[in-house]
Specification:
223 residues, mainly beta, Leucine-rich repeat, LRR (right-handed beta-alpha superhelix), 9% helix, elongated
Length: 223
């Protein structure tokens, strides 16, 4: 089989096909490695998704999902990307904590009031995007994401962050734009690899003195 034929066999792109619901034939494609179901007006995803054991990337963004199935946590082969952004989600099943090899997760533009605890078990995450939600607090357990390099929290309702963010020693970018922050933990100043701290559109924060120390060592602070 040619390389092109093989690529066609394992990748399925159904972006913006006005599906309304996912045909059962999709769940029978157990060889799939990439599945794009974005922008289809989907309101639910079948538990049958658990059959897609080879999936490395799944895009469910730009739909109308109010929940995702427990079975999503069975896809332990998900290593590359999981897009859940621009839906109507307010919680995630605890089973998603089984996705311990996932490196990129986007839950932006949903209705989360807090960062789901299960995400903190995704210990291989490199990039987490949770912008444009209603998140008012981060769990202390975020310290478990020791491989995280980018944390995007723009336009939420955060007034502070836990001291435990100081455990994210691989963090390069921290985006806090548009939050009603009143304080920041000094542990951020000790993040050894932080390259960019974005505090634009934050009007409630008295800048702590250690921001100057961050800038002096080369971190770009937008404010």
């Amino acid at each position: 089989m040619s390389r092109m034929a093989s690529a066609t066999r394992v990748h399925l792109n159904l972006w913006k096909q006005n599906l309304g619901s996912v045909p059962d034939s999709v769940w029978q494609r157990t060889e799939l490695q990439t599945l794009v179901l974005a922008d289809n007006g989907l309101t639910e995803i079948s538990e049958k998704i658990s059959a897609l054991k080879e999936l490395r990337m799944l895009d469910l963004g730009h739909n109308r999902l109010v929940r995702v199935p427990e079975a999503l946590g069975n896809l332990e082969g998900l290593t590359d990307f999981l897009y859940l952004h621009d839906n109507k989600l307010s919680s995630l099943p605890s089973s998603l904590g089984n996705l311990k090899r996932l490196r990129y997760l986007n839950i932006g533009e949903n209705n989360f009031a807090s960062l789901p605890e299960c995400l903190c078990a995704m210990e291989k995450l490199i990039e987490l995007r949770a912008a444009d939600n209603e998140i008012s607090a981060l769990t202390d357990s975020i310290a478990r994401l020791t491989n995280l390099r980018e944390l995007h929290l723009r336009n939420n309702r955060l007034t502070s962050l836990p001291e435990t963010v100081g455990a994210l020693h691989q963090l390069r970018q921290l985006d806090l734009r548009g939050n009603p922050l009143t304080s920041l933990p000094a542990s951020i100043a000790a993040l050894p690899r932080l390259e960019k701290l974005d505090l634009r559109w934050v009007t409630t924060l008295v800048s702590p003195a250690w921001l100057g120390h961050l800038e002096a060592r080369g971190c770009i602070v937008y404010r």
